[in-house]
Amino acid sequence: MSELLVLIDHSEGKPRKVSLQLLNAARTVAEGIGADVAAVWLGTGGADNADVLGANGATKLYTWDSEDAHGYVTLPQVEALQQIIDNNDVAGLITSSSNHVKDVAARLAIRVDAGVITDATNLEIEDGKVVATKEVFGGDTITQCRVAEGKFPIWTIGANAFPVEESGGGAAEVVSIDVSLSEAAQKSKVTSVEIQSGGDRPDIGEAAIVVSGGRGLGDEEGFRLMEELADTLGAGVGASRAATDAGWYPHRFQIGQTGRTISPSLYIASGISGAIQHRAGMQTAQHIVAVNKDAEAPIFSIVDFGIVGDLYDVVPKLVEEIKSRKG
Ligand SMILES: Cc1cc2nc3c(=O)[nH]c(=O)nc-3n(C[C@H](O)[C@H](O)[C@H](O)COP(=O)(O)OP(=O)(O)OC[C@H]3O[C@@H](n4cnc5c(N)ncnc54)[C@H](O)[C@@H]3O)c2cc1C
């Protein structure tokens, strides 16, 4: 049977949540096209995760247990994937939508003659073909598209587009591969990696809930209120560009066209007008709540629940209510 590959995004020896979501997406697609799901782990520690990847639907796990997978930039991953594709019957590849992985997907596609759809928010089977949903023009238009040319499709999918759902499968069969890198792949080396986190809060790209603040906060102190709300919900904190440009919150938390694209289960926007460039980064959130004192603010056109009011009246009451319900 052909295989649908899922490139596992991992950190500190564990698969990231997005990878388990991708395995769930892959199961549906594999069932529709008559393929098996095979995970691909590039870097050390893959075999230790055969259980969890199997429980989430991978029947096979290709691992390249080498520091080189991360030691050099992009090409080692491309060459490892190319080797797997050249030696197996591959029906497609699913990866996350992180910038690095999209770089890998694009270069790989050229080498193996595949078609790529980036930033898909859903994959469905229609008449035996895989149809992807993808937003274009900064989220203004939603398209249904499929790869019509090339040997097979590659889809990159953002975090939280699919839930994590265990399949109940046993450990994936581990297949180790060895990759001898070309000279070109060893030309640029990663010498150190510094992860800038949001402290104890979850990364906004993976968080189930994101609380976000904009110019309406008035100053950087307003973000203490956002953080307080976030901490009552176990959420990450994001910001509009107006807020990050004003220096009220670091740029790495900016959400939108020129910031991060996120898709949490719940997005709570306070003092954000909802400009199209901001919406491009958050409108695939499953539930959107906004607090804005202007009833005509564009954000209200995409909310599930909108509160017209001063955020400094509304948000403290929200924090109080959540705290009292949590006991
Ligand atoms: C090429 C380009 C790329 C861009 N990329 C991004 C991007 O990635 N992300 C992004 O966010 N923007 C981006 N922008 C900027 C974008 O166009 C908007 O200017 C920006 O999103 C506005 O941020 P804001 O909603 O915080 O501020 P504003 O638009 O000024 O809105 C503030 C809102 O707060 C409300 N408000 C004020 N006081 C209160 C209060 N006390 N209580 C409740 N509500 C209150 C107001 O009614 C208003 O609706 C980009 C622009 C361009 C041209």
Topology, pairings included?
Blueprint: E1 3-7, E2 10-11, E3 14-15, H1 17-33, E4 36-42, H2 50-55, E5 60-64, H3 68-71, H4 75-87, E6 90-96, H5 99-112, E7 115-126, E8 129-136, E9 141-145, E10 153-157, E11 173-176, E12 209-213, H6 222-233, E13 236-239, H7 241-245, E14 266-270, H8 276-279, E15 287-292, E16 305-308, H9 311-326
Parallel strand pairs: 1-4, 1-6, 4-5, 5-11, 6-10, 7-10, 12-13, 12-14, 14-15, 15-16
Antiparallel strand pairs: 2-3, 7-8, 8-9
Helix pairs in contact: 4-5, 6-9
The chain binds flavin-adenine dinucleotide.
What's the gist of this structure?
This protein is of the alpha/beta class. It is built from nine helices and 16 strands.
Account of the 3D structure:
The structure is a single chain. The protein is of the alpha/beta class and 327 residues long. The protein folds into 2 domains: 3-186, Rossmann fold (3-Layer(aba) Sandwich); 209-326, TPP-binding domain (Rossmann fold, 3-Layer(aba) Sandwich). 28% of the residues lie in helices and 26% in strands. It has 9 helices and 16 strands. The strands form 3 sheets. Strands 9-8-7-10-6-1-4-5-11 form a 9-stranded mixed β-sheet. Strands 13-12-14-15-16 form a 5-stranded parallel β-sheet. Helix 4 (75-87) crosses helix 5 and helix 6 runs parallel beside helix 9. The protein is elongated, with a radius of gyration of 21 Å. The termini are far apart. Bound molecules: flavin-adenine dinucleotide. Flavin-adenine dinucleotide is lined by residues 214-216, 240-243, 254-259, 271-273, 275, 277-278, 281, 291-294, 297, 310-312.
